[in-house]
């Protein structure tokens, strides 16, 4: 069998010469589509599949727990408060878990941490079933706070694989944000359908099973796992001390409040099985925008992304207040979501640039922690407002206000730099 690496030759009167016919190259050219180039890398498809399965419950737990508690206790304020308590606890524990991931590796830390979080979810469901007092629900939800930042671990793998290719890393970050939005798009729909068609706890229970299964599949892909950082690297200054990081975290905090208040306000306004699909449209708009943004060679300034998000987040309020039409609200949420992904992609890219080497999981987890803290504030504030305001429509005042605060934090930080 001829060697494919040797050139074809023909005999001429003066000796051998290259044959003037096609020779198949030894290496196939890289795909023109930047997303196909990502998945041409060995092992990327396997770790992405497991990570997506594990991240889908992120979009399920919020809606599943809110619907479960609201229907059992007839209080969106209590549901929002319990959800907020879980998010705050996760925000406090996530940086420490990320530090363990940086030091000991994803495969050693993620499975036991997720197993404990799943046990916490099962305990919370049992407490709601037994009509436990409110303080018990808040205390129990603290047990779920050990789940690691799965999206951050996936981004860390891309950062390791593409450390010498910034354009491809931008595309990978855009894909990861689109994956987040896909989970937030499908998760609420799945949770709402399960809670409505089966029983109120079905969303949380299904999410727990997917979280554990996906994490085990993801952790099993050792070939693409980033190397463990040396102790000297993890013992250095915290990413919090990196120049510009505190202001960036303040921006993520306000951005999280946009998401938390929008979710609770929409759930209260729709108040039925249609809430999941309506919320999914916001994530769908963000998902499409993120995929398009990933093909752009140069990132848009973060302040411009935040300004666009502030403007688009004003749309759901008139759609709900003036028309009272569910299709109009759904269309407004679709448009409102289109500035979310570019904001998050650009923000996460900035985090990656600011984080010291060897502490990438911790740096990105701090950003997610700030985001979760903002979601908690938005959920609690939104739940209180829709319970005490004359109409749930008032809840849609909160997202544009929070987006404006995020823009203010970014512009102020840039002006002081």
From TrEMBL:
SUPFAM superfamilies: MFS general substrate transporter. Keywords: Membrane, Transmembrane, Transmembrane helix. Residues 1-26 are annotated as: Disordered. It comes from the Bacteria. GO terms for molecular function: transmembrane transporter activity. This is Major facilitator superfamily protein. InterPro entries: MFS, MFS_trans_sf. The keyword Transmembrane helix applies. It comes from Streptomyces laurentii. The chain crosses the membrane at residues 46-69, 76-97, 189-219, 240-262, 274-293, 300-322, 328-351, 363-386, 392-413.
